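In response to reviewer comment 3 from the previous cycle, which asked for concrete evidence that the modeling workflow produces usable outputs, we include below a single protein chain processed end to end. The sequence was submitted unchanged, and the resulting structure tokens are shown without manual editing.
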Amino acid sequence: MDAPEPDQTPFAAVSAQTSRLGRIYQSYLDKSTPYTAYRWVGTGVLLIFFFLRIVLAQGWYIVCYSLGIYLLNLFLAFLQPKIDPSLTQDEGLEDGDAGSSLPTKKDEEFRPFIRRLPEFKFWHSATRAIAISFFCTWFSIFNVPVFWPVLVVYFLILFSLTMRRQIQHMIKYRYVPFSFGKARYNQRSGH
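The workflow returned the following structure tokens.
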């Protein structure tokens, strides 16, 4: 009674299923790409559920603090240009190339603002982090006893200092990471 030898090993079968699930997940991500407002509304609702869980359960403040620090880090990467003007300016001075900074005069070449962390990756990372944090709040091992007002004050100080530094950097190198408030030009058909 010899059993026929299987076509795949168990590892190959698991690998194939994981790959298939990854492709399905990626297809849903691809389909959600044009719906920016709906994606962020969903993330906001998930964040509200997370905060409700923290407030109602009266715990898991370290998880909340860690999520806040991670989201702040993502937000800063979202605000920064892909090529840091302060670094390229320093390199340009060393190499003798002063033309590698952002344009500051009307006759200089326009270069669009390219983010270090694109909006979609920012959304995806933030949503995944909120979901993982929400999942962690259901396990008591992550409920470390801590005096939460200290964490709130420390986070607010960290946020204000970091944002002040980022705004000073934006003013110094004259870039605006947002498109609202900028002049928009109508495209003529045929041009």
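Confidence is low (pLDDT under 50) at residues 93-100. We consider this sufficient to address the reviewer's concern, and the full set will be provided in the supplementary archive.
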